[in-house]
Amino acid sequence: MQNVYLDHAATTPMDPEVLEVMTPYFTETFGNPSSIYSFASKSRAAIEKAREQVAVALNALPEEIFFTSSGTEADNWALKGTFEKAKGGHIITTQIEHHAVLYTGEYLEKTGGADVTYLPVDAEGRVRMEDLRAVVTDKTALVSIMFANNEIGTIQPIEEIGRFCRERGILFHTDAVQAAAQVDIDVKALSIDMMSLSAHKMYGPKGTGAFYLRRGLKLENFVHGGGQEKGKRASTENVAGIVGMGVAIEKMKTRLPQEKPRLSALRDRLIDGVLKAIPHAKLNGARGEERLPNNANFSFIGVEGETLLLDLDAKGISASTGSACTSGSLEPSHVLMALGLTHEEAHGSLRLTLGRGTSDAQIDYVLDVLPQIVAKRREMSPIWRA
Q1: Fewer CB within 10 Å, N- or C-terminus of the chain?
Q2: How far is CA 189 from CA 60, 75, 284, 290, 323, in A?
Q3: 197 and 304 both lie in a single domain
Q4: Is 165 a catalytic residue?
Q5: Which of 265, 310, 325, 380 is catalytic?
């Protein structure tokens, strides 16, 4: 039995070089960045270096990067901050967003009387520009559409959305937590006003994220208390985590030209192999360049996704049925339901997400084991036998 980790969309292992750079900030260079003595200034300098590393990776300016505790926090900041600054206004998002956006939208509806539109998507999870254009009003303050979906990997037409929003004078936020480690992102070329990132999706530490806010834009402060992050996000900085994020995104950017085609080839071999070997298997999401290089998501009629995960785990394969943030939920994936899948199809889903450690041999192993597991479970299923 092999040990095969195919849940990189949930989290990635920390790069040993990232950990090595972080370690001194736990033990030796532990000064509080807000203190004025020279020992503490080393921590401040480390934060500013990381800010520059993140900015360079995104073609942004260092002053446009704010460090957070997570991508979820950055999503909250974008929606809540815009709504408060605009003193209301109309927000447009989609039905397949991460719950960090969906639940924040619902919160603003309930507590602030926000007007939120949740756009439908096509059968591959793609936003239709005609739908977006149809719902924009003169009160629309923000469009928040994720760069690529965390469950099915479909990449949205971000450049077209950004250009449309810029022409209409509407702020555009994108949750790029999944996309940032998989595709090249240029915030200027894509007309992005705000963007959310998370370090642990790109071989960095958990508990650290970043928020890109285009220069000149003003949002309400997210955390009140101290003067950290230009006074917009109070609390003593997670210096080690921030340093780790800076190194992680820099290394990711360097490796991307080689890693993206490698993962794309492995992904396509996995997808083609599963669809060929397993009858009535369905791929969820787009294909080719419109899909994240590391994402494969399937539905298997007659099989419960949770049972499938246990069977795979017994064979040493770690996978998921959808977002790690909702892994304890018995409800079918809201993403798959938005694609038009039935409850049965949504409950029989499997997400396999590849990473730096994924090899051809591991894909071969999955293609050997998975068809056997699905066949066995279907034999036991009264729905399948019927």
Answers
A1: C
A2: 10, 21, 29, 18, 29
A3: no
A4: no
A5: 325
